[in-house]
Amino acid sequence: MSGLRRLERLKPAAPGDDALSVRDERLIMGRWSGALWLLAGAVGAAGQAMPGVPHDHAWLAWTLIAISVVYGAACLTGVIPWERVSYGGHLAAIIAWQPLLALALWASGGVDSYVQPVFILALLYAAYFMPGWMAWVGVGALVVTNATPLLYTSPGEHQAAARILAFAVACEGVTLTLQHLKRRLVTAEQAAATAPPPPDPLTGLHRRDALDAALERAVAQAGDPRVGRRAGDGGVRFSLLLVEIEDLATVTDTFGPLAADRVIVDVAESVRGVLRPSDVVARTRPAELAVLASGAGEPGSLRLAQAIREAASDVRPGPSAPPVALTVSWALFPDESRDPAGLFAAADRGLHARRRLPSSRA
Fold this sequence. Notes:
Elements: H1 3-7, H2 17-48, H3 58-77, H4 87-96, H5 98-107, H6 119-129, H7 133-146, H8 160-194, H9 208-222, E1 238-245, H10 248-255, H11 257-274, E2 280-285, E3 288-294, H12 298-311, E4 326-333, H13 340-354
Antiparallel strand pairs: 1-3, 1-4, 2-3
Helix pairs in contact: 2-3, 2-6, 3-5, 4-7, 5-7, 6-7, 6-8, 7-8, 10-11, 11-12
GO molecular function, one term: diguanylate cyclase activity
Protein name: GGDEF domain-containing protein
Domain GGDEF: 236-362
């Protein structure tokens, strides 16, 4: 499978992501094509002004230069909407340009043409951007076009055959190299896209993005018709608990930042120690942890909150300091919300309400 085809599959998280990535790639292709054709037109104009360049067909050369500039500007400015064109359409454009490139070679000296090195621009474009076999077709078309001077030049004249053969071999090497590099790039991007998010560096717990992903999965599985469930079924429950370390700023001011970090680590270890393997815990804010407790209703959430408070009851910022206090709140799925953002909002509202209660309350 080609690198670009694999690249199309890198973003499966949301509907339409694949299509969006492909459109973006084609948009980039169009912009690059425009820039390269403008550059080719500039090279052609500069070459026509230099000594030693044949001017027997100057009118044709300037016409082709004008076409290159206009076409390049249309691509670069988006007048030609390349992002809406298929890869086959991009390949067709490459092939359609070959007769004009052959005319440019003929009008500027044939096998001795100063235009021939500019073919490298089209070669790089086709070899990198076109997927799989299309890259080879596009590059092959350039090789054939570069060989057209043999139609009106003896193979031995100016080493025509040898120069054309060398160009063909160089095209093969460049294409193999760029296709290999594209595959490596796509593989690296795919690995980065599927790698788990890094943990919180202080506690080793998950971060907020990992918890969000777990919540999304839990909500989706609860409403997955393949397992005979609908969001809101009585048997499909879980809760989101928020655990806040109270007055952590005071701990920092009184005992120092290292003591505050140790409190966070000890509380995290205490929370992790009372959870089941199926639960997910993350550090979502500097002084806040969040727990996704599968299968937990109101009684189970209350028991878990009490277990967390008891487990952390010996965490102290210093030898003579009192234990840290925790405020714990929770929101139930599907009772209080049926989406992750709503669950966080409901749990956060409960957290704010419980801050005003005596610390013995969960």
